[in-house]
Write a structure and sequence with these properties.
The complex is a heterotrimer of chains A (276), B (288) and C (444). With 276 residues, chain A is mostly helical. Helix content of chain A is 70%, strand content 0%. Chain A is built from 13 helices and no strands. The C terminus of chain A is likely disordered. Chain B is mainly α. Chain B has a single domain, classed as MetI-like fold, CATH 1.10.3720. Chain C is α+β, with helices and mostly antiparallel strands and 444 residues long. Chain C folds into two domains: 184 residues, D-Maltodextrin-Binding Protein, domain 2 (3-Layer(aba) Sandwich); 197 residues, Periplasmic binding protein-like II (D-Maltodextrin-Binding Protein, domain 2). Helix content of chain C is 42%, strand content 14%. Chain C has 19 helices and 15 strands. The longest helix of chain C is centred in the first third of the chain and has 17 residues. The N and C termini of chain C lie far apart (49 Å). The chains are: A mainly alpha (276), B mainly alpha (288), C alpha+beta (444). The interface between A and B is large, with 93 and 90 residues.
């Protein structure tokens, strides 16, 4: 690659930074507003950072919104759902990767169909199912999708990852007399670390952000998860935007941290993550 | 022996998907042909629900809103994913940071993202209008303005393009370097390079973005509109998913609600069909 | 941990509900549909002291939840054989979603809480047990102890369906300081619409420090406009109990709607759409930037705690366009037809709608009691608490929204068109014409 001049490089950075600023704006204004003292009238002039910025609103959001307790509920859901999802999706991924070509095509098509089912369609039958299983008002109702690997996308991600393994790696293990479970645990899983991390991160974001299910399945306030807690905080404090934004920022923090920690798997230049 | 082991490993996924997803979806589709009110025995009514919806003024508005939102958001999101990917595809100092920033809004949870936008587009005190005011531009009422409210959701969708961005990046990464070099040896300019090499080879990936959006974009509006507007002002931000939920739950017309979702699926299928003809050439080329 | 819903009979119900949906695709199955006049649960008269658990689903803010908890524990103390499972869903929209989902699954709570406009739709679908006989037999609840206006909309098709927990209505909250500053006399009893408009126009001004001071404001809805239609001698529907068509196109009704909408469109004394979205009228009132605000008793507690001493405020009856009238805002405790423990549920309703329950709820300041004795007591008419003029809620003639199985949908359609007219996007006659067109099918 030929060397660029300083001017070209500066221009490239300038354009990139301006573009990136647009994408950063929602988070930026959330944080900026969350630092604004609540006793001051709303701004009438654009301010990037408020005068007399304060961290008080975060304490208020945590206290008024009881966000720590709701956060613990959310964490519980995530902590159970992620391992379960990894288990189901990687099992299925390995099985599909290993199936005969015709079965492989059929199963991939099945996964794609499952991927395309709109959520808006199924809530009523699923609600009845949850009720029938006696899972109403329990965290298990929120974890239920993990029993099918959460999203068929995760199964497909594992399928693609396993298919990329050097041919014969799995067969050799099988020839050594290892059963499927052994192959999965000691041969297949250790070599698809990036996929495991990517599914973990996506899975975290999906359960952490789930707002619709808890509203439908949970009744007891002590079991509410964080998004419900935040919307209660907003309804109670709808005029005190600094507190609401502080709550939103706190709520967004864990998925942002997960993203930043795993970003090279999200943005990996190899075509590993999404598409095989 | 081994095959049976793998079959068993497949079981949770297949059985789970059928019980939790595909079965419920088929049941719900069946409801679209009944007068189910959630409470009493449903009766088969054929396509009455569909005919009724098409005649209902509010649903006509909802359908128009949904089509307009799709047609506006799809190209914006496509460009919003592809242009940054083109710009940031070469490894360069700092590119990683910019890529992360482009993806960042996509990991914000729904409720946080929605509440943030309610504040951003506050007609008097929100940063968007204060910025427009500082530039001496007109300041729409956004969620209070029937003509501007839908645009808020287009803007919101335009910033959550992380997945498309990654898809586009992957596509650009997959273009063989020899092709580019060969073209450069032939003396192709930047534009010609893009026009004849990069763009054609990106097309399958762009198609994938469109497919994804055609299916998931309308469902995406459900939590957003439920939190932010409830469909206001004057049905202007009422899209099919929220309409279906209100029809089912508030008015206890589950048959009609399901029928509305069927319209959403049809809409997605139409978009996909239109795009299919455009993209089928290179669809599996890369897979094979 | 206790999961009140994890019992086998419920699974049976859910299975039958699923089967019922499956049956949608095949021939009709012999699942009994209860005719609304022949409810099953009403026949079981309480013979002995009921025992077990009784579930109760409520909605409201955190303070209301605390009050409900207090009522539940007082009830348990009075009935040692009963335990209350209190389910609390904060937002009313979420609450309705939950209730409907529970009804569909056949497992509603034993006692539910409904707006009076929503009782007829559920009664129509045989989801509620009428309480006519239970009420007649009750030793603790006497219908005569309640305000008739609160009970009226709960009687439908020859039955009484629920017991009113409160009897609030729309009034005008006003900022005395802004009246003083504009040198306008406070609203007097029987004030007219013209007095009201004059006051709003006098108060309206630009303040150098805090921005626009509006004369009047509230969110636009059916409930805000309807009382003026009645006051002017108009009607909403041709027959309030069995409506077959809307009457908003009557001359008096249209004129009343026009006069209301003129507040925003002609006089500009009320915030426009963008201003209302930027900062809603309730917030403006609390911040001292709105002269008059229309709402029910619900906001009183919020005003007490947020306004404190920053300015003096009070309430007045709605201004009259002819005869003084306001609109009933009321909720009721109802007994779902599929309640598992109907006898215990009725006991809880008796308790919650009785003096103890109503006093507890009234004490937090959010409602007007439906029991005359509680309403006339210092719990409601506390001379030391604002607003000073709480009597206005007891003295104004009230009318309820019409009763119809599709009323919630009709009300939404009306609100949407009124809103469009109020913000100047369409004329009143266009609004009424559109409403008529949309509602026709709903009234069939």
């Amino acid at each position: 690659m030929k060397r660029e001049g300083t001017a070209t490089r500066a221009l490239w950075h300038l354009v990139s930074a301006l573009g990136a600023a647009v994408f950063l704006a929602p988070l930026f204004f959330t944080v900026s507003m969350s630092l604004r003292p609540i006793d001051r009238p709303y701004p009438t002039r654009l301010e990037l950072l408020p005068a007399q910025a304060t961290l008080d609103n975060f304490g208020r959001a945590l206290r008024d919104g009881n966000l720590l307790a709701y956060g613990a509920n959310s964490l519980l859901v995530v902590a159970v759902a992620i391992p379960l999802t990894l288990l189901v999706a990687s099992w299925a991924g390995l099985a599909i990767a290993h199936a005969r070509p015709r079965e492989q095509r059929a199963l991939t098509a099945f996964a794609l169909v499952a991927l395309l089912v709109p959520q808006g369609l199924i809530w009523l039958p699923r609600f009845l199912l949850v009720k029938w299983l006696g899972l109403m008002d329990t965290p298990l109702a929120l974890i239920l999708p993990a029993f099918m690997g959460t999203s068929a996308l995760f199964t497909l991600m594992f399928t693609w990852a396993f298919r990329r393994l050097p041919e014969g790696l799995l067969d050799a293990a099988a020839l050594d007399g290892a059963d499927a479970l052994r192959v999965w645990w000691s041969v297949a899983m250790p070599v698809v670390g990036p996929t495991i991390l990517a599914v973990t991160a996506l899975c975290f974001i999906s359960y952490w952000g789930d707002y619709i299910d808890p509203l439908l399945y949970l009744k007891t306030p002590a079991r509410y998860t964080l998004p419900v807690g935040l919307s209660i905080l907003q309804q109670a404090d709808r005029t005190r935007w600094s507190i609401v934004m502080a709550g939103a920022a706190l709520y967004a923090l864990p998925p942002l941290a997960v993203f930043l920690a795993a970003q090279r798997f999200f943005l990996s230049s190899r075509r590993t993550l999404w598409l095989g | 022996m081994r095959a049976r082991g793998y079959r068993l490993m497949l079981l949770p996924f297949v059985a789970g998907s059928i019980i939790l997803l595909i079965g419920p979806a088929l049941l719900a589709l069946g409801l679209a042909f009944t007068d189910f009110d959630g409470l009493s025995t449903p009766h088969w009514v054929g396509v009455d629900n569909f005919a009724h919806l098409l005649q209902e003024p509010v649903f006509q508005t909802v359908l128009r809103n949904s089509v307009e939102f799709l047609l506006l958001s799809l190209p914006i999101r496509l460009l919003g994913a592809y242009l940054p990917a083109l710009w940031l595809s070469h490894p360069r100092r700092g590119a990683g940071l910019y890529r992360a920033l482009v993806y960042l809004p996509s990991v914000l949870p729904d409720v946080a993202y929605a509440l943030t936008w309610v504040w951003i587009v506050n007609p008097m005190y929100g940063p968007l209008n204060l910025a427009l005011k500082a530039m001496g531009l007109a300041q729409p009422g956004w969620l209070a303005d029937p003509n501007a409210a839908r645009l808020v959701f287009v803007m919101m969708a335009a910033l959550q393009i992380g997945e498309g961005f990654v898809i586009a990046l992957s596509g650009l990464r997959g273009i063989p370097a020899e092709r580019i070099q060969a073209a450069m040896v032939d003396g192709a300019g930047r534009w010609a390079l893009f026009r004849h090499i990069t763009l054609p080879l990106s097309l399958p990936w762009l198609a994938l973005i469109v497919v994804r959006d055609a299916i998931f974009l309308l469902p995406w509006t459900f939590p957003m509109t439920a939190i932010m507007t409830g469909g206001d002002p004057y049905y202007n931000t009422l899209f099919i998913p929220l309409y279906a939920r209100i029809t089912s739950i508030d008015y206890l017309r589950f048959g009609q609600g399901s029928a509305a979702i069927v319209f959403m699926i049809v809409l997605a299928a139409l978009v996909l069909f239109a795009f299919w003809r455009f993209a089928r050439r290179g669809w599996y080329a890369d897979e094979a | 941990m206790h999961f009140p819903h994890a019992t086998t009979p419920l699974r049976g119900l859910a299975v039958s509900a699923l089967a019922l949906m499956l049956a949608a695709c095949a021939a009709a199955t012999p699942i009994p549909t209860n005719a609304p006049t022949a409810p099953a649960a009403a026949t079981a008269a309480p013979t002995s002291q009921p025992a077990g658990r009784v579930s109760w689903m409520v909605s409201g803010d955190a303070v209301e939840f605390d009050a409900y908890k207090a009522i539940a524990s007082a009830f348990e103390k009075a009935n040692p054989t009963l335990k209350v499972d209190l389910f609390y869903i904060p937002a009313s929209g979420d609450y309705r979603n939950r209730l409907d989902a529970d009804l569909v699954a056949g497992t509603p709570a034993d006692v539910v809480f409904l707006n009076y406009q929503r009782t007829a739709p559920y009664a129509d679908k045989a989801q509620l047990s009428p309480i006519t006989d239970k009420l007649a037999a009750s030793t603790t609840l006497k219908e005569a102890d309640f305000y008739a206006a609160a009970f009226a909309p709960l009687k439908w098709r020859g039955q009484t369906w629920c017991v009113p927990s409160n009897m609030s209505s729309a009034v005008i909250y006003y900022n005395k300081a802004l009246f003083d500053a504009a040198k306008v006399a406070y609203p007097r009893a029987g004030w007219s619409w013209d007095d009201f408009v004059a006051a709003a126009r006098a108060i309206m001004h630009e303040d150098a420090k805090v921005g626009t001071i509006f004369g009047y404001g509230t969110e636009i809805s059916f409930f805000r406009v309807a009382p003026y239609v009645w006051s002017a001698g108009g009607e909403i529907v041709n027959d309030p109990l069995t409506p077959t068509r809307l009457a908003l196109d009557g001359a008096a009704a249209q004129a009343a709607i026009q006069r209301y909408i003129d507040l925003q469109v002609k006089y500009g004394v009320a915030p426009n759409a963008a201003a209302e979205k930027a900062e809603d009228s309730m917030t403006r009132f609390m911040n001292g930037k709105l002269g008059m605000y229309m709402d029910s008793r619900r906001v009183t507690a919020t005003f007490r705690s947020t306004i404190k001493d920053s300015f003096d405020w009070d309430v007045a009856a709605l201004p009259s366009m002819g005869s003084p009238t306001s609109i009933l805002h009321s909720d009721a405790y109802c007994l779902p037809a599929k309640a598992k423990n109907p006898d215990a549920a009725w006991k809880l309703i008796e308790f919650a709608a009785g003096p103890v329950g109503q006093k507890t709820m009234t004490a937090i300041g959010r409602l007007v009691p439906s029991l005359k004795a509680v309403a006339e007591s210092p719990v409601f008419l506390d001379p030391n608490a604002k607003p000073a003029n709480s009597r206005v809620w007891l003295d104004t003639p009230l009318r309820p929204a019409p009763t119809h199985k599709n009323w919630p949908a009709i009300e939404t359609a009306i609100t949407k068109e009124f809103e469009k007219a109020y913000y100047g996007v369409q004329s009143v006659s266009d609004a009424v014409a559109t409403i008529n067109k949309q509602v026709e099918v709903l009234l069939k």
